[in-house]
Amino acid sequence: MAEKETQLEKIKRLSTNKKQIRNIATSAHIHHGKTALTDNLLAASGYMAAKSAGSLEAGMATWQHADEQERLLTVDAANVSMVHNFDGKEYLVNLIDTPGHVDFSGNVTRAMRAIDGTIVLVCAVEGIMPQTETVIKQALRERVKPVLFINKVDRMIKELKLTPEQMQQRFVKIIAEFNTLVEKIAEPEYKEKWQVDIKDGRVAFGSARDNWAMSVPFMQKKGVSFKDIISLYDMKEEERKDWCWKNAPLFEVLLDMVVKHLPNPDEAQKYRIPKIWPGEPESEMGKNLIECDPDGKPAFVITRIVIDPRSGKEISAGRLFSGTLKVGQDVWLNLAKQKQKIQQVLIYNGIKPEQLEEISPGNVLAISGITGEAGETITLEPETPFEELKHIFEPVITKAIEVSKPADLPKLIEVLRKVAKEDPSLKVEINEETGENLLSGMGELHLEIIENRIKTEKGVDVRTSPPIVVYRETVMKKSDQAVGRSPNKHNDFFLVAEPLEEEVYEAIKNGEIREGRVKKKDDQLTKRLREIGIDNDEIRQYRNVYKGNVFLDKTKGEVHIGEVIELVLDAFEQVCDQGPLAREPCMKMKISLVDIKLHEDAIHRGPAQVYPAVRDALHNAMKGGNAVLFEPIQIYLLEAPTEFMSALTGLVASKRGQLLDVRQDEGGVTIKAKIPVAEMIGWASDLRSATEGRGVCSLVDQLFEKAPNDAQSTVIRNIRSRKGLAENQ
Ligand SMILES: Nc1nc2c(ncn2[C@@H]2O[C@H](COP(=O)(O)OP(=O)(O)OP(=O)(O)O)[C@@H](O)[C@H]2O)c(=O)[nH]1
Ligand SMILES: [Mg+2]
Known about the structure:
Rossmann fold, alpha+beta, eight-stranded antiparallel sheet, 33 strands
């Protein structure tokens, strides 16, 4: 039977056997070798010619956009599936190759929802880098278990010419740093359990490009020593390839590690579901999810949307956590609140999505016929949706985008809606009245790629403005009670604005406190606020958590409050989106409704009365709280040979930057610096010229800080004039 079975039939058979599935990703700092590894794994499973696997020049199999080949980097996450034999059993490995460039790391956040384990790659020469820490954070937040692959060991042998002892020392150092990160980031239960151990085989090392890998258990099995490995590169190329294929096959070492040490969906969902799904674990849905039950109620989460350029059809890839998805099924989209019909269910066969009649839970798969958004939970009837897919960084760079030919405007608007759907890290603001459309992204490269795709793939000729920095508005101190009166003068709202507690803000940012209106008693919110030390009375007053701001209702015994509170919260959200200083978004504010005077008759307190009154009250309260602008700041790690130390520090100083740390060792100089995003325009070329092209930089973190006092009024004036705001607007 085995001979007659096609690859697709085999995948189909394995996809129904939960114990023999692994859902994984590659994740790493930029260019540490994720795609080379993915390509070589695909090649070994017979999906592509071994000759061109992992070859940048020939093009990576998983690169699906021309810009990825042009720029030699991964932009989009790519889903692939393959079959691996381990200990006489076959396993279906669903793998997502993720991008390393920080501008695209939203794709990593979303991929993590679909998988249970990840291969974290670390370049043996560069070691642990800032983005390594970010991917570990992204994985652990979703309870995705990591294993470690130390890659580019060929460079370590050929360039650094290390002895077997030095090589081992270097591995030990990388592993120790990796484990320190796991210890620092993981939840208490996983701090130790998920540290990797070289002896038990949760660490492999090798060369993704040269198609070999090793682990300590594999070395013992094959009787290979570190000395043998070092002398690999003394062999002729053909001879080395043969030796590696026999003694150190990349696919076998890596996929054995995956099968042995990463969980199957059945095991993983038991502890992942309580973290990523906020519903009641004892409910029927809860039990179905925890058991990854094929006969249970279906629950599918969209993690990525691809729009077919020719047919315009949307393919939604994601993870099926429970139940069976079938062609023709009527399903419910919990965020969109709509019924829709599934047209196709697709499973990956290599890189190719192929149609099946139905697919079982615990798989990464795709469906068509649905128009949803990434993060959507698809079920049969309304259910508690999964936790929001919240990215670590926010978009900080914006460009205005306009069409060259006015007749193209409607087409541009349609295209912008599509790109925003395919790339949820992109924020699109469409203003059909003024025609000013804004694109906000994670960095200059991100916007450049999007602009190019609009031109080349979507065929609309567009122009963009120079980058605009998006600021934040907030308050510096607690205001007095401020009032806002409705236009009919029958309703008064009294508000107080004050800075939100740092810990509450952090908890919102980390996703420990969920954003949204607080409808009924929310146990998770109560628990977290209590841990922070917020008193019980105040916890009960929480009504809304919106973009890093909170709204509290402190009124007592007001009979009509229930009828207007939703309107009050609408107006609060409007001001959070566009603050009073320059219509920039607000952050880190605690707004309290302390008193309210309402007209007896509901007809006199509708939206037209409540909205302007609450907005006024809020504007006045923010004024009383010393409203200021915060600017986005990025923390970078800069590296260059030692002779460029003063050039680097000079460059940082010229960008209003601040040195946080300067280190020097045999590898060169490493500087940690804090630089305002407003000064980062043109950074890549400035860095290149300051270091003769030998400096590299990577983003460590992003935050907002008060813009300098002497710049506040100029910046506000500039933003207001750009937006065409009148004095009293
Ligand atoms: N010497 C050496 N080079 C490697 C190895 N693995 C990958 N490379 C090279 O490193 C560069 C980046 O490889 P990719 O596989 O594209 O890395 P990546 O992590 O997918 O990159 P991004 O997705 O853009 O973050 C390419 O030039 C590869 O040929 C390796 O084991 N040894
Ligand atoms: Mg890649």
